[in-house]
Amino acid sequence: MTPTPTPVTGQPLDRTDGVAKVTGAARFSSEHPLARMAYAVLVQSTIPKGKIIAIDTAQASAMRGVLLVMTHRNAPKLPAPKPPGKDEQPPNPKLSLLQNDEVQYNGQPVAVVVADTLEHAQDAARRVKVRYAPQPAVLDFQAAKRAPRTPKPQPDRPSDTARGDAEAELARAATRIDTVYTTPMENHNPMEPHATIAAWDGGSLTLHDATQNVSGVRKAVARSLGIAPEQVRVICPFVGGGFGCKGSTWSHVVLAAMAARQVGRPVKLALERTHMYGPVGARPMTEQRLRLGAQRDGGLQSVMHDTISHTSFVDDFTEPCTSPTRMLYASTALRTTQRLATLNLGVPTYMRAPGEAPGSFALECALDELAIALQMDPVALRLRNDAERDPEKDLPWSSKALRECYRVGAERFGWARRTAQPGSMREGRTLIGYGMATATYPANRMPAKASAMIRPDGTVLVRSGTHDLGTGTYTIMTQVAADALGWPVGKVTFELGDTAMPQAPVSGGSMTAASVAPAVQAAATAVRAKLVALATGDAMSPVHGAAADDVLVENGWLLRKSQPDRREPAAALIARNGGAPVTADSEAKPGDEKKQVSLHSFGAVFVEVHVDADLGTVRVPRIVGVYDVGRLLNRKTGHSQLMGGIVWGLGMALTEKTEMDWRVGRAVNANLADYHVPVNADIGAIDVTVLDGADPHINALGARGIGEIGITGVAAAIANAVYHATGKRVRDLPITADKLI
Ligand code: MOS
């Protein structure tokens, strides 16, 4: 008997792209060396609202090396927005493409300077003189929220929801809390800022773009320029982090393409760190009111969550903070609302767990406040209200192990050692606090395509136009393909990040693994079937004449189940049959499972904080996170990704905030020295556990995505622990020392 090969999926395989990353061989978007490259620099508005009345470009244009100063006066006129068609969106209004003289936010691109070197372009950009007729700008969130707008309803996401009579149930409740939580504007700070290289060849455009969505960029750029999507190729083999800001196409991408066409050379437009604060999205400010009413035993009678987030005059974006509230607990009644306050700022956008990150902060802090009011253990309160079915959709869960997350988390953390009284675990000057919260994120999936090719040398190439944000896509797809094919993992290569490859969805909404892995599995299975057919039809093959299900492919060899000693490598079979590669294409789509079940991931986060009694500084020596995310495709990259999410949550709780000069609507900490993200010294022990168990509904692999759940619940768990340490409830993020002394 031949031993059955151990599946490699799930194993903690090292990143297949790891060596390329750490040796600098991995080429990021701004690093592609093209001949005759020209360099573009953005000129940004310095007022938040008004009209451009004059742009003096004479001095800049006359400078050495300058090829183009593009403004709304000389920029190519782009096609007017078309009505939305079946598969098409109109060019997104959030793009600032130098088509008119209007300024809607501070930092809006108002000119692009192109020169033969970056330094020449930067120098000339400083000499472009713009004169404005300023108009009154709306920059006061408190004032704007007094005239709130209701967001346009989206298909699966109404702005308001209700079940039962939340007001009446609240009035009847034995214990009530009514609190307001606020979270600040935050900016994405991936290691790699946005960057684009645009190169035209006749009517065809190639973009090397830092993006989470190559096919989305292709579509958006084609629509904006009025050309066919087939004329645009977008390439992005490596992304230096995204966190949502690279999920959509921003102005600089189209501007680079426009400039490249004007100067007849490839144009590189790489944003500086400062450019990341304004024209490419941010997480909006939120203000969230939570009203909870409970019976004496903790059973929730009423949950009311009213949220308002800021948006822009350029386009709307809603931070859907109420999403977790709508489905997490089994309350008798519920009411949620989402409103918008419109400001003269750049359009906000998706930032890691949009909705769930700030929403779970408010909800899970409110639960903690309720537990205190009820004199109940916070874990016990959550267990009391655990939803057996999805209360929003009224469907059973695809699978849910949240109770097990609480149990395992409490045990790993040592929750039983906690004494309830705030400040009761003090050691000298150190106030010790324990806090916890629930984590949750929906399990999304979209159609995806992949191709697989077995080459005559016995190596395999699998491709899909997806992305690796540094999270492990290359590695997990290699593992899935190797297992589906019966191939040694070292002989399988996975390629991604190119619109010339089979199409995959945006790498956002935590759906790459759940969407693309099934397509990879399908392509590998299909190419395996073709290989087996070739072998069974070949008189020279040891499996000639065998039924397909009597043939095994193991380690790249073909053999008959019933005669395992007669075998040959696939390479020999292919060589004998003309040497052409065996290829297959496949598509994998979600079925109707969303009609039958509700697909969500869950988790429980436990945190210990140490607060300096005199200085109010908060340290987080340890965090325990236990997750129910279906089957993990790689234990190493998966744990790292969840850990990264937890680190984000710590930043959200304690450090991150875009500080604005509200007189002019511009970020004043638009750099990594002043915008504080956690660094290694801020992070203590992070203990991640992923419960075993495949989701039987999401896909054949049982794998849900894990890109976003890691951040959820963490800020609340830290805030709850800070309360437990100090007796001070901070409802306004970030929890900085000044709020504790
Ligand atoms: Mo994520 S914020 O959907 O990239």
From TrEMBL:
InterPro entries hit by this protein: Ald_Oxase/Xan_DH_a/b (IPR000674), Ald_Oxase/Xan_DH_a/b_sf (IPR036856), Ald_Oxase/xanthine_DH-like (IPR016208), AldOxase/xan_DH_MoCoBD1 (IPR008274), AldOxase/xan_DH_MoCoBD2 (IPR046867), AldOxase/xan_DH_Mopterin-bd_sf (IPR037165)
Give any GO molecular function from the UniProt entry: oxidoreductase activity
What the entry lists under Gene3D superfamilies is as follows: Aldehyde oxidase/xanthine dehydrogenase, a/b hammerhead, Aldehyde oxidase/xanthine dehydrogenase, molybdopterin binding domain
Query: What domain of life does the native source organism fall in?
Result: Bacteria
| Annotated region (Disordered), positions in chain | 75-95, 139-167
Which residues fall in a compositionally biased region of kind Basic and acidic residues? 154-167
**Which Pfam families does UniProt cross-reference here?**
Ald_Xan_dh_C, MoCoBD_1, MoCoBD_2
Domain (Aldehyde oxidase/xanthine dehydrogenase a/b hammerhead) ranges: 23-136
UniProt-recorded name of the protein: Molybdopterin-dependent oxidoreductase
